[in-house]
Write a structure and sequence with these properties.
By secondary structure, this protein is an all-alpha fold. 74% of the residues lie in helices and 0% in strands.
């Protein structure tokens, strides 16, 4: 994979992590001011900060970082009252686990890659999108599941 397509893939993962929750969430006006970063935003920030490790081909470190973002997002989902936000957090976490698996595969950590991929894919398959998702959200969900299924069949996505 050339450098330009790798950069596009990295940008797509970051965009999906940031866009998917917005696509699935309802428009709600918030009037409270918070000093703390919302739980799910912490996971998105970690994913965004992982670009340098991926670009530098430090796949083992990038995989661990992606897994950390996944664990944070999944923890957020367990505390979330809104079904839409819980879906977004769980989906982000599952996607980050798949990314962590792909990066572990790149780092020749096959056992870890298989474990993370199985966990991420299991979560993806168990999730039901909220009613009335946008076409963009539906497409992102489908593409992400398809990529995970290819990984499961040994056609790993490379970074």
């Amino acid at each position: 994979m050339n450098t330009q397509s790798r950069a596009l893939r990295i940008a797509a993962v970051i965009a999906a992590a940031a866009v998917l929750p917005g696509c699935a969430a309802s428009a709600v006006q918030h009037r409270s001011v918070s000093v703390n970063t919302p739980c799910g935003d912490r996971a998105v920030q970690i994913i965004a900060q992982n670009v340098n490790a991926i670009s530098s081909h430090r796949y083992a470190a990038a995989s661990r970082t992606a897994e950390r973002a996944a664990r944070i997002s999944l923890a957020c989902a367990s505390r979330e009252r809104s079904k839409r936000q819980a879906f977004s957090d769980r989906w982000r976490g599952a996607n980050a686990l798949v990314v962590a698996a792909e990066l572990a595969h790149q780092a020749s950590q096959q056992h870890r890659a298989n474990r993370l991929l199985a966990e991420g894919y299991r979560i993806m398959r168990s999730l039901q999108p909220p009613a009335h998702v946008s076409a963009l959200t539906s497409t992102l969900i489908s593409q992400t599941r398809d990529g995970a299924e290819r990984d499961l069949h040994g056609q790993w996505s490379f970074w």
